[in-house]
Design a protein that fits this description.
This protein has about 230 residues and is an alpha/beta fold. The chain has 6 helices and 11 strands. The chain is globular and about 50 Å long. The chain binds cytidine-5'-triphosphate (CTP) and magnesium ion. Cytidine-5'-triphosphate binds next to helix 2.
Length: about 230
């Protein structure tokens, strides 16, 4: 890959409260953990993979990465990951999104190089409504121009370090990194994501992930956009 080194940074230090199966990155889908799946999808495309793990936990064997202790929040974990590499470009990807097409990795990396920051996004398909004061139907929210934000998100590392420092100093909390850039007026490119990049958050998502894995692991899905 030309234009400077790339590192994949994987926040995997969460406790998985909503899933209720212990630290989520270690939960297995069809015999392979969410973390192992995410690392395997990124490793072929980057110079190194660094993972933030829950304090006191270590990487299971068979996962080719370096690990560091994560922080109390996702934002803290990413801040620590940024200090653990000197790559020029970083791809931040949630361990909890195990089905990552190669096409998305390529496009987010290219856009991050060009623009400085980029994220995978998915068009919102459902009709949107804001609830009224009684909790019932209030008002339509036009969905034109609205996108659901996924990972991976790519950045020039120095840019993201600076934005994280500002966010920490100003007490700004976010569940993603592109938003931390955008609040400072930085440009963030939007790259087409993929429905299979959903985040495994609830027990229902885990059931969906089992179903997706059955097809994904067979290697017959979207062979055209995939290399790895
Ligand atoms: N994460 C992290 N460090 C934290 C919290 C979260 O590295 N202190 C990571 C998670 O491991 C996950 C990603 O950030 O890969 C997205 O977070 P989320 O889906 O919220 O995972 P959890 O925080 O583990 O789940 P929950 O919020 O249900 O406890
Ligand atoms: Mg969380």
């Amino acid at each position: 890959m030309s234009g400077g080194s790339v590192a994949a940074l994987i926040p995997a230090a969460g406790s998985g409260t909503r899933l209720g199966r212990g630290p989520k990155a270690f939960v297995e889908v069809a015999g392979m953990s969410l973390l192992a799946r995410s690392v395997a999808r990124l490793a072929p495309h980057v110079g190194e993979v660094v993972v933030a793990l829950p304090d006191g936990m270590s990487l299971p064997s068979g996962i080719t990465a370096r690990s560091i202790p994560g922080g109390a929040t996702r934002q803290d974990s990413v801040r620590r990951l940024l200090e653990a590499t000197d790559a020029e470009v970083v791809l931040v990807h949630d361990a909890a999104r195990p089905f990552l097409p190669a096409r998305v990795v390529w496009e987010v990396t290219a856009a991050a190089r060009e623009v400085g920051a980029a994220t995978a996004v998915l068009p919102v398909a459902d009709t949107l409504v804001r609830a009224g004061e009684d909790g019932g139907w209030g008002q339509y929210v036009p969905r034109e121009g609205l996108w659901a934000v996924q990972t991976p998100q790519g950045f020039r590392r120095e840019t993201l370090i600076h934005a994280h420092a500002r966010a920490a100093a100003e007490g700004f909390a976010a569940t993603d990194d592109a938003g931390i850039i955008a609040r400072l007026g930085g440009r963030v490119a939007l790259v087409p994501g993929d429905a299979r990049l959903f985040k495994v958050t609830t027990p229902g998502d885990l059931a969906l992930a089992q179903a997706v894995a059955a097809v994904w692991d067979a290697g017959v899905w979207d062979a055209g956009d995939d290399d790895a």
